[in-house]
Amino acid sequence: MNRLANSASPYLLQHANNPVDWYPWGTEALQRAKDENKLILVSIGYSACHWCHVMEHESFEDAEVAALMNEHFVCIKVDREERPDVDQIYMSAVQLMTNRGGWPLNCICLPDQRPIYGGTYYQKHDWMNILMSLADFYYNRPDEAIEYAVRLTEGIQQYESVNLITEQPEYELSNLQAILTNWKKYLDTTEGGSGRAPKFPMPNNWLFLMRYAHHVKDDSLAQLVKLTLHKMAFGGIYDHIGGGFARYSVDGRWHVPHFEKMLYDNAQLIGLYAEAYAWSNNDLYKEVVEETITFVQRELTSHEYGFYSALDADSEGVEGKFYTFTKAEVEEVLGDDADLFCIYYHVVEDGNWEEEHTNVFYRKEQDAILAKTLGLSTEELQAFIAAAKAKMFEARGTRIRPGLDNKILASWNGLMLKGLCEAYRVFDKDAHLQLALNNAAFIHQNLINTDGRLTRIYKKDALGEKPVAFLDDYANVIEAYLALYEVTFDFKWLELARSLADTAIQYYYNEADGMFFYTAADDEQLIARKSEIMDGVISSSNSVMARNLKRLGMLFEVSRYEEVSAQLLRNVMPFMEKYGSAYANWCLLLLEEIGGLYEVAITGNDADDMRAEMEQFYIPDKIMLGGNVENLPLLQNRTGDDTRIFVCKDKTCGLPALSAAEAVKQIWLS
């Protein structure tokens, strides 16, 4: 076994038996490269990554390839989820070199960590040729290698950077309309989603587009949002038997998934579908939320109520084997009931995707329409399918399961906690709140140090270790605690959110350019200190912090928070029109700046019941606060036994309302 054998990362442990002399990222490997003047080979991936497994099998398990790597390189394996700071730098390098990125990510660097070459997946023959060429290039033409590394490193340091903008612009709806005009060109009006293939769920995109459509009453855009949510829920990207979403579909119609299931996707999609239900009252959305939460509880929740990171795409070395069935296998489980199940989920004898005779379950027809065609009532069809799904789930449970990545990450736990809060907000189900409270307590007890700093990864025996966390850990946990406060009115969660925000400003905020760095001021210094600005499948840490600080500033009436939030948006605003999809969460903040946020304060003995009543109305542009303690400026002199609702906006409050309907009327008439 190599040096990865002592790692806690499931991904690194997968490579512990490779003949490659792997090191984890750290002082030992980096010092050896300098001492021996050897190139560094940085290979980055994650445990649920299918093509990472393929490259490992083809190259890293091969003795010939390993001998070549060991002779000429100091080889370092990195789990991108443990060290996103390292991944960020070398992903920037590869994108600058090739205009594309992904995982596995492989970068060849000088002994001082500056990259000179990089790419993603390589077949064995190509990989060996590249390695031999690079080794020859460095040993025979080191000056050229250094010259290229200098230019590339300068590019990395400038990549995804912004300028400080001091003048505050006037934001208008026309700014968002300009962004949408370009954005709409890339939306798929036939199958939903963005572009053609592959298709990623992109929850932040559809959350913004839903709220924008609601705000401006854009019916065509609203229909496109509904089409996308419907197609994803009906497609094979959704696990119809066990709940939860795969990371993306490889085709353009959401049919065939890349089967890995990530916590961060499911966390955000829970929140998206919950809000979509509040918006349009579609029972399909409620079903998706309930089934996805059940999946996360069953398969991604530790006994301490931390949430695990991912399930692998592969089992028994085959992608999707756990989830797919031949028609004969369905018939063996369901017997005479198989025909109707196969009609419902489009199971065919020859199989409905590339693997011979294998089927990915997906839906096309609405229950009412299909039931009528089959001569059944809708209720009869739904009861039949529910019973058949239970049998298929039981049969599937006897198979060898995909591997579990049992890392517990602060950032992704924050996303899941927020998703649970959104589900509770909409459906008022105590089980959702209890799971949220259990996880919130887990984060507080295990991932926040005694000095108030976050630790990214939960380790049982990490006492005395310096906590290492990144800006996304702070941003997503703060956002989650803000959401938890809004559904409980328990001030301790709001206090925690504020404390973490103060820590983030202290260690990550850069006054010189008005953005947050991704790494802390006292973290390991890499070849560049980067800021995460563009929104991807997960919203960027800077955009989340900007929205957090906007809310904290309003709740506590602290101008410093609102000033930093405003500075972040000013800096990013010039980039948003060209590529709105990559600034979706920033667009949400811009929408809130233009339309304003309502502060809904509820006081009195029945404040929580009244809060639940308020949530029956779809009002996305609001902040909820309340209880019977005067712990926030807006609650002062407003508490008492009688339950009242105060609707405030732009530092002006209306007359107290005595019912949710009365309060909502104030909002709708304002």
TrEMBL record:
InterPro entries associated with the record: 6-hairpin_glycosidase_sf, Ssp411, Ssp411-like_TRX, Thioredoxin-like_sf
PANTHER family assigned to the protein according to its UniProt record, in alphabetical order: SPERMATOGENESIS-ASSOCIATED PROTEIN 20 (PTHR42899)
A Pfam match: Thioredox_DsbH
TM spans (from-to): none
Designated name of the protein: Uncharacterized protein YyaL (SSP411 family)
Residues of the signal peptide: none
Residue span, Spermatogenesis-associated protein 20-like TRX domain: 1-154
Entry-linked CDD domains: SSP411
